[in-house]
Amino acid sequence: MSITNTIGRRKTSIARIYLKLGKGEITVNQKPLVEYFPSEILRIIIAQPLETLSENGKYDINVNVKGGGTTGQAEAIRLAISRALVENNSEVKPALKKEGFLTRDPRMVERKKPGRKKARRRFQFSKR
Length: 128
Hints:
4 helices; five-stranded mixed beta sheet; single chain; Ribosomal Protein S5, domain 2; alpha+beta
């Protein structure tokens, strides 16, 4: 198996991953996963596809991620890992699809409109 390259997106985050057989090391922007994502919850989100297939520790994953915040980046990485696993072995697709890891979450922040306080919030009305 050679290196598999896939992309994942969430909110304004874009994650490109390079997956290959290895010892289970995950690096994000040339930093170890624990250093880049100090939050345990975000590391669990990233490892979910590997945990679902019980293939934790089989692959080395190199991630380049940019844009958005930490949650969006973690979910973009999760989508990219899921896509790479399906590209390597198409038999795992139903298990990942059932968990919802192959669905691109389309929700984005709504833009602020002119004459409004936020996207939909109006300024307080005063009758007098």
